[in-house]
Amino acid sequence: MRPCRSTPEAAPDATKRSGGQYYRPSVDIVERTDELTLLAEMPGVKPGEIDIDFKDGLLSITGRVEQRQGEDTHYLLQEFGVGDYYRTFQISEHIDTGRITAEFHNGVLMLHLPKVETLKPRKIAVQVG
After folding, report:
1. Which of these, 30, 84, 88, 94, has the minimum number of CB atoms within 10 Å of its CB?
2. Taking 90 as the threshold, does the pLDDT of residue 81 lie above it?
3. pLDDT for the residue numbered 14
4. Band of residue 125 on the pLDDT scale cut at 50, 70, 90
């Protein structure tokens, strides 16, 4: 069973990009008894600049990063790339997509992907007699 897997990227419309390029955020996916938790690093993104969409079994995450330079800025060394984040995941029928929730703290997006009830482990009582 693979309730969530990464898909090949096809970046959104180029006119939506702030820096001309997309970065693929690093992601950890943790399986717990009742849910999958997806953690995506998206430094430089403000909470209001995150879009999470679910359509046709695909969960898409987009985070926009504002330009870091002003008109009077002259860099002597610039190693930080400027661009937006984009990543998609194929979500299986084992996830209750109507109950997906998201949090964002300190540059890390946390998605809670609850499992459907039939997938959760349960104890079965033994009948005597």
Report:
1. 30
2. no
3. 39
4. confident
pLDDT digits (tens, 9 = 90+) for 63-79: 998 776 667 778 888 77
pTM: 0.75
In the chain, % helix, strand, coil (3-state, to 5) comes to: 5, 45, 50
Q: ∠ CA 119-35-125 to the nearest 5 degrees?
A: 40
For residues 59 and 27, the answer to whether their CB atoms sit within 8 Å is: no
Q: How many CB atoms are located within 10 Å of the residue 116 CB?
A: 14
C-beta separation of 29 from 36 below 8 A: yes
Q: How far apart are CA 10 and CA 55, in angstroms?
A: 15
Question: What residue has token string 């109507």?
Answer: 98
Quick check: 72 and 66 in contact, CB under 8 A?
Answer: no
Residue 62: what residue type?
A: T
